[in-house]
Structures are given as C-alpha cells and as structure tokens.
Amino acid sequence: MSRTVRSRATKAAAWATPPPRAKGRMWAGFLTAFLLGLAVAFLITSGNGPDATQRRIAELEREDAARDAAQLGPLTDQAKGTRDSLAPVLAAMAQAAPVDGSAPKSPLTSDAVTGWRDVVAAAEKSYEQSPSAGNGINVARAGLRTAVQQLAAAVRGFETALGVAEPVRSTLVALAGEQRTLALRTWSVAAVQLDVINIEAGRGHVHVQLSTGGDAGVIAPDGAPEGR
Q1: Which of 52, 147, 194, 223 is close enough to 186 for a disulfide, judged by CB 3.0 to 4.6 Å?
Q2: What's the half-sphere exposure (Cβ side, CA atoms, 13 Å) at 218?
Q3: What are 33-85's pLDDT values in tens digits?
Q4: Cα(121)–Cα(128) distance, rounded to whole angstroms?
Q5: Would the pTM of this model clear 0.90, i.e. be above it?
C-alpha cells in the first residue's frame, strides 16, 4: 500500500472515532436521563395519591365491610329466633335435669323428648348454611351453630336414657344435662361476640342469651357471669 493510501485511511479512522471527551459527554447524558427517570418514578409511587395496590386493598376492604353489614342483620334475627324457639325446651330440660346438678323436679317422658328433638332439629338445620364473611361474623355464626349441635347431642342423650332402667337412666340423664349446659355456655360466648359486632356496627346492644333456668356459668354481654 502506498504512503498516500495509508495516510488517507488513517485520517478516515480518526474521523470515525469520536474523541474521548465526546464519548464521556454521551455517557453522562445517559446517566442523567436514567436518574431523572428514577426520580419521576419515585415521585409517582410515593406521592400524595395511592398506587394501584393500595387502591385495590381499599376497594377490597370496602367490599368486605359491605358484605359483613349485609349479613349482620339476618344473623342477629336468626339468633333471636333460635333463642325464642329454644326457650320452652330449655325450661323443660331444666326441670328434668337442673343445671345445678340437683335432683330432677319432674320425670323425663318420651313425649317431652320427642318435642325437644323436633325443635332442636329445626334450629340445627337453620345453621347448616355458612356464607363467607369477616372473622367477627364467622366466629359468631360458628359459635351459635356449635351450641345448637351440642344441644342436639344432649337431646340424643335424653332419648337414650329413656330406653334403660335405673340407676343407669339417672346417670344418662345427668350426662345429657351436662351436655345441655355446655351448649348454653358455648351459645353465651357466641352471643357476646354477636353483641360486640352489633355495637361496633352502630346497631347497639343485641342480647340473644338463652334462658338457662339456673346458674349455668354462662357469660353475659358485659363479661360478668350470668345466672339465667
């Protein structure tokens, strides 16, 4: 290659390669643009308005609150209805198996137990459905349902006692009475929970405690033991 050609190639390469200072200014521009982008993103996500995740959380909380509000009234009415329907059954049970463990005040009869079974079975069926709700309502509903199930177990115990002779019969009646008392205590806990939820919702006190017919060791809405 002639000297003239090599000289032209060297000049062309020099023109094609940017000077070091120009390359540095180019990278500085890129870095500045990147930092500005980060700053804008930070201002958008941490500014005055919530981001999409926060808005979604708030939306879900509103939906949950509306769902609970819609279920609270029906659940409270259901508990009141159960209380009223069980009142005569519990009064009769208290005669056959006093809650204080004393001697029965009236004999256990087949007709009486059959009537208890029908009423308690209807109450138990009414709690079969458990729609999803917040923890407060779920706990209250589960407590009410469990109490009715325990009372149904007590009725089965009374039925069993009818088919045996003394002294086993008296023992089974006493055991069924204890199961009834556990049902009353379970219901009282759920009733307090339901009362608290209604107060928090601005609906005021709701007393759905069952009549115990004596000192059953249940809990009253104010947290003090309630005798009846």
Answers
A1: 147
A2: 30
A3: 665 665 555 555 554 556 877 876 776 566 566 677 788 999 999 999 999 99
A4: 11
A5: no
